[in-house]
Amino acid sequence: MQSKGAIKLVAILIALACLYQLSFTWATKHQENKSAEYAERAVEAMKASPEYAKVPEVDKAYFLDSLRKEKSRNYLDSVSAQKVYLGFTYKEVKEKEINLGLDLKGGMNVMLQVQVRDLIKALADNNESEEFTKALDLAGKRELETRQDYITLFAEAWNEVGGGKRLSSIFGTYEMREKIKPETSDEEVIKVIRAEAESAVANSFNVLRNRIDRFGVTQPNIQRIGNTGRILVELPGVKEPERVRKLLQGTASLEFWTTYENQEIYPYLAEANTLLRRMGEDEEAEAAATADAAATAADAAAPNAVAPEAAAEAAQDSTVQALEAADSLSKDEAAFIKANPLFAYLSPNQSNGQLMQGACIGFAHYKDTAKINKMLALPQVKALFPSEFIPMWTVKASDWDKTGSLFELVAIKASSRDGKAPLDGGVVSDARVSYGNTGGAPSVSMSMNAEGARVWARLTADNIGKQIAIVLDGMVYSYPRVNGEISGGNSEITGNFTVTEAEDLSNVLKSGKLPAPATIVQEQVVGPSLGSESINAGMISFVIAFILVLIYMLIFWSLEQARL
């Protein structure tokens, strides 16, 4: 009887554990349903607003669908850092829910291959010798017939067709002079090539991961496949395969930009805030005039109708009330947003009323960054700022923000001649993590080629005391302050990095040096119908299995009772 009690206890504990884990999926679904309801209220409010009447009939469905998605996303963003279930935030609950994956949710499965051949050619400065070309071709041919990695196959091919020449004669270029000498053995050269390839693949992985995070896919799966140079990407729920292809295969663009000081840009931000308020007031006045005209026309058609002023006022009041209800804003909050359309979302970089030094001009919650970008991109607003001004967000949240939600907006200063960055990543010859003069904290050491060293010396000399931003794919990875002119092309970048952050930054810097594009070699789009069929089949299987277990338990229990 004691064994039966133990079995019951174990069964109950397992059931409770399963229910606990499943409850996170329920909690996530509950919040998503609330976001859908919130979005529908916003849609209904929009239908009653004068703005909706201006939308062409053929575009109304698309307009409402876009609004529905935006409002749903805004709601989920707003609760991402709030505790919504058992002390967990929505973000944590979402991470704990059961991952349906592609087979149940549908989406896109992509296999990318980092082109190691192109990387090896770049390391050799595109050497065109006959032996080198033959070795590359032979390695490529054998790669199709074996599971060995390309670098190993290249080393074997070189031993066969190299004619006794050292690999150092091929790879002993100016940029590789610190790592490969004329006397360096072939084995050492291959080690260097392998290390560079590993760095390139790691950087491609990081670039893809950051792009996917910004794409907004729920529960993506991205992983490296051994040492093959392949990267597997699974994107559940994706319905735009062409957009995903462009996102994953786009060339990473590493650039170095000069910056403005916060004090230089703040006056323009204040002007933009005022202009946006006036534009909002003008739109309200125009909407009120439109409503008044419509009410006047209705009154002329129906003499017994409500007075035009009362009708317009009632319509406007109902619209405002509906919008306030949909956006869950108090009157004070709505009034503040109306008076400060920009600063309600972008907090200026100041402390105790004093503007802080540096290139950071403000902070914003990640859910508001797109809204701020849209406001700053308006032609009327853009005309207020210097023509060289480009706002760019940091790739990670601010260091002092414990929630990981607030990102920094950096004031980039473009070249007045062509609007391009004064220096790109093609001049970086090497980058590595070091622990030199930072008291044990990791920093990043960077080396540039002769051309880069010359431009870098001039750039740093002209910007002493200011910050230079390191930008990849339009996102700021770091913006260290220049303490003095840096000649010779060797620099050390500090910034309270963790070891992982320093490694990522060194890989980012090296991404501009070697062209190792990741190309799609295999892709599969899984439709949601397959997922629905899988879920239904799983439910049927579960019900059948549950019934069979119950029958077995009843039979076993009856036999035990009969024996007693």
Task: Quickly list its features.
alpha+beta, eight-stranded antiparallel β-sheet, 19 strands, 19 helices, 564 residues
Question: Can you walk me through this structure?
Answer:
The protein contains 19 helices and 19 strands. The chain has helices spanning 2-47, 50-53, 60-78, 90-96, 101-105, 116-123, 130-143, 150-161, 168-171, 186-215, 241-249, 262-301, 308-327, 331-339, 369-376, 379-382, 450-462, 499-511, 528-563, and strands at 83-85, 88-89, 107-114, 221-225, 230-236, 254-259, 347-348, 350-351, 354-355, 360-365, 389-393, 406-413, 423-424, 428-434, 443-448, 468-472, 475-478, 490-493, 518-526. Strands 6, 7, 10, 11, 12, 13, 16 and 17 form an eight-stranded antiparallel beta sheet that branches. A four-stranded antiparallel beta sheet has the order 4-5-3-19. It has a three-stranded antiparallel beta sheet with strand order 14-15-18. The model is unreliable at 303-327 (pLDDT under 50).
What can be said about this structure in brief?
Helices cover 53% and strands 16% of the residues.
Give me the secondary-structure topology.
Layout: H1 2-47, H2 50-53, H3 60-78, E1 83-85, E2 88-89, H4 90-96, H5 101-105, E3 107-114, H6 116-123, H7 130-143, H8 150-161, H9 168-171, H10 186-215, E4 221-225, E5 230-236, H11 241-249, E6 254-259, H12 262-301, H13 308-327, H14 331-339, E7 347-348, E8 350-351, E9 354-355, E10 360-365, H15 369-376, H16 379-382, E11 389-393, E12 406-413, E13 423-424, E14 428-434, E15 443-448, H17 450-462, E16 468-472, E17 475-478, E18 490-493, H18 499-511, E19 518-526, H19 528-563
Antiparallel strand pairs: 1-2, 3-5, 3-19, 4-5, 6-12, 6-13, 6-16, 7-10, 8-9, 10-12, 11-12, 14-15, 15-18, 16-17
Helix pairs in contact: 1-3, 1-4, 1-13, 6-10, 7-8, 10-18, 12-13
